C-alpha cells in the first residue's frame, strides 16, 4: 500500500489549537522539531518549574528542556510502568515539590510517555489545588493521544485509571526527534492507536487525511521512519484536538469515538495479563469492532476488510496468536466490568453516520466478530 501521498490529502498541520470554551483556555499543540526548546517561552515568567520525567527519557531529552528553562527548572524522576502510576508516586512528588518550594504560581512540565503525562498531569491538578502543566510527550502513544485532552489519572490496586481529574495543559510540545530514542516495541504500541485514528477517520470522511496518509506510508511507519511518523503524529494530534474541543469533559458522547477497538482491546490485555501489548490488543480490538459493525449491517464487508488491511500494513496482529484462545464468555465478562460500560455491553462502532454507540449487540453478531479474531464462540469453553 505504500506510496506517495495522494494529491488531495490536506497538508499535516504542525500547530493546532484545542479550541476549548470558557472557563477553560484554548491551547496549542505543536508537533515540530525542536519543540522542547519552546518550553521557556510558553512558561513566561514562572519562577520555578518542576520537570517530571523517567530516567530513560531524561537521559536523552531533559537537557533540552532544562536549557530552555534557563536555571528555573528542576528535574524530578519517577519510576517506570503502570506500577509507578500510583497515589504513592503522586504523594511522593507533592512532598518533593513542597521541599523544592514549588508555589501555586509555578508550573510542572511532563516529559515522557503516557505514564509520566498521567502522573505529572494529575499531580499538577491537585498540588496546591492546581498548578499549570505543560505536556511534552516523548512516546508515539502520548503524542497522538495521551498528552492531548486533559485527562489525567493514576491506578488503584483495584483497577487502572480509577483516580484522576480533568486538567488541561497550558500547551502540548511534541518534538518528533524524541521518537528516535523510543524503543521499537513502544513505537509498535503507538501504531495501534495510529491504526485506530485511521479507522475512525475512514468512517468519517478522513478530514485530516490520516487514513490516506497511513495507507500511503504504512511501510515507512512500520520501520519508524521519522518523516512518516511526524506526518502522522500531526494529523492524529489535529484529529484528537478536534474531538476534545467538541467534548472537553466526555459528556456529549463525541469523545467516546476514541474508544474504537478499546472495549475488546482492554479485555484482551487484562485476560492475557498484559502479555499482549496495548497496541496489539487495540489492533485485534479494531478488527473485532469492524467485523461486529459488518455483522450488524452498519458497514459493508469491504469497509471491514479495509480496516483489517490497515492493521496488517502497520505490522499489527489481526487476530489472536495461535495457542489456547480465551473463551468469548470470559472476555464478555471482562468487557461488562469496563468502567465505561455501566453493566451492559457497550461498543463504539462505525456505521452509516460515522462512529456511534451500540448497546448489547445480538449474540450471533458477537459470535461472528469473535470468530473473526480467533476467539472461541460464546457457549464453549469456561
Ligand atoms: N490521559 C490520557 O488521555 C491517556 C490516553 C491514553 C493512554 N494513557 C496512558 O498512557 C500510558 C501508556 O503510555 P505509553 O505507551 O507512552 O507508555 P509509557 O509512558 O510507559 O512509556 C513507555 C516506555 O518508553 C519510555 N520512553 C518514553 N519516551 C521515550 C523516549 N523518547 N526515549 C526513550 N524511552 C522513552 C518510558 O520511559 C517507558 O519505559 C498508560 O498508562 C495509559 O493509561 C493516558
Q: What secondary-structure arrangement, pairings included, does this model have?
A:
Blueprint: E1 15-18, E2 27-31, H1 39-42, E3 49-53, H2 55-69, E4 73-77, H3 87-99, E5 107-112, H4 114-126, E6 132-137, H5 140-146, E7 151-156, E8 159-166, E9 171-174, H6 184-203, H7 210-223, H8 226-246, H9 262-271, H10 278-295, H11 301-313, H12 328-337, E10 346-351, E11 354-359, H13 363-372
Parallel strand pairs: 2-9, 3-4, 3-5, 5-6, 6-9
Antiparallel strand pairs: 1-2, 7-8, 10-11
Helix pairs in contact: 3-4, 5-6, 5-8, 6-7, 6-10, 7-8, 9-10, 9-12, 10-11, 10-13
The protein binds nicotinamide-adenine-dinucleotide.
How would you portray this structure in words?
By secondary structure, this protein is α/β, with parallel strands linked by helices. 44% of the residues lie in helices and 16% in strands. The protein has a seven-stranded mixed β-sheet, with helices on both faces. It is globular, with a radius of gyration of 20 Å. The chain starts with 14 loop residues before the first strand and ends in a 10-residue tail after the last helix.
For the report, how would you describe the main beta sheet? 7 strands, mixed
> Beta fraction of the residues?
15-25%
Spatial strand order of the main sheet: 1-2-9-6-5-3-4
Bound molecules: nicotinamide-adenine-dinucleotide
Order of helices and strands: EEHEHEHEHEHEEEHHHHHHHEEH
SS-based class: alpha/beta
Shape: globular
The tally of helices reads: 13
pLDDT under 50 segments (min length 5)? none
- Mean pLDDT equals 94
Amino acid at each position: 500500500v505504500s506510496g506517495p501521498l495522494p494529491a488531495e490529502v490536506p497538508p499535516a498541520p504542525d500547530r493546532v489549537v484545542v479550541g476549548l470554551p470558557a472557563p477553560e483556555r484554548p491551547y496549542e499543540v505543536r508537533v515540530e522539531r525542536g519543540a522542547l526548546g519552546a518550553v521557556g517561552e510558553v512558561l513566561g515568567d514562572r519562577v520555578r518549574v518542576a520537570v517530571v520525567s523517567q530516567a530513560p527519557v531524561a537521559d536523552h531529552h531533559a537537557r533540552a528542556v532544562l536549557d530552555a528553562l534557563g536555571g528555573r527548572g528542576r528535574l524530578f524522576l519517577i519510576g517506570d510502568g503502570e506500577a509507578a502510576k500510583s497515589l504513592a508516586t503522586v504523594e511522593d512528588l507533592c512532598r518533593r515539590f513542597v521541599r523544592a518550594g514549588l508555589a501555586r504560581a509555578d508550573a510542572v512540565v511532563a516529559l515522557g510517555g503516557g505514564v509520566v503525562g498521567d502522573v505529572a498531569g494529575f499531580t499538577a491538578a491537585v498540588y496546591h489545588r492546581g498548578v499549570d502543566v505543560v505536556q511534552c510527550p516523548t512516546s508515539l502513544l502520548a503524542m497522538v493521544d495521551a498528552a492531548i485532552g486533559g485527562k489525567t489519572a493514576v491506578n488503584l490496586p483495584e483497577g487502572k485509571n480509577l483516580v484522576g481529574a480533568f486538567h488541561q495543559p497550558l500547551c502540548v510540545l511534541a518534538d518528533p526527534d524524541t521518537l528516535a530514542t523510543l524503543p521499537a516495541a513502544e513505537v509498535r504500541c503507538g501504531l495501534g492507536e495510529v491504526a485506530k485514528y485511521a479507522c475512525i477517520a475512514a468512517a468519517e470522511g478522513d478530514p485530516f487525511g490520516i487514513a490516506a496518509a497511513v495507507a500511503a506510508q504504512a511501510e515507512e511507519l512500520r520501520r519508524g521512519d521519522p518523516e512518516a511518523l511526524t506526518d502522522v503524529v500531526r494529523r492524529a494530534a489535529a484529529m484528537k484536538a478536534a474531538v476534545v474541543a467538541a467534548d472537553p469533559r466526555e459528556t456529549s458522547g463525541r469523545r467516546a469515538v476514541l474508544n474504537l477497538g478499546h472495549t475488546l482491546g482492554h479485555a484482551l490485555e487484562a485476560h492475557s495479563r498484559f502479555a499482549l501489548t496495548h497496541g496489539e490488543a487495540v489492533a485485534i480490538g479494531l478488527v473485532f469492532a469492524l467485523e461486529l459493525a459488518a455483522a450488524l449491517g452498519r458497514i459493508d464487508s469491504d469497509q471491514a476488510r479495509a480496516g483489517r488491511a490497515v492493521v496488517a500494513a502497520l505490522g499489527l496482529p489481526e487476530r489472536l496468536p495461535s495457542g489456547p484462545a480465551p473463551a468469548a464468555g470470559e472476555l464478555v465478562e471482562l468487557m461488562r466490568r469496563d468502567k465505561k460500560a455501566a453493566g451492559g455491553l457497550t461498543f463504539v462502532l462505525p456505521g452509516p453516520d460515522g462512529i456511534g454507540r451500540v448497546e448489547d449487540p445480538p449474540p450471533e453478531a458477537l459470535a461472528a466478530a469473535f470468530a473473526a479474531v480467533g476467539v472461541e464462540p460464546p457457549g464453549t469453553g469456561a
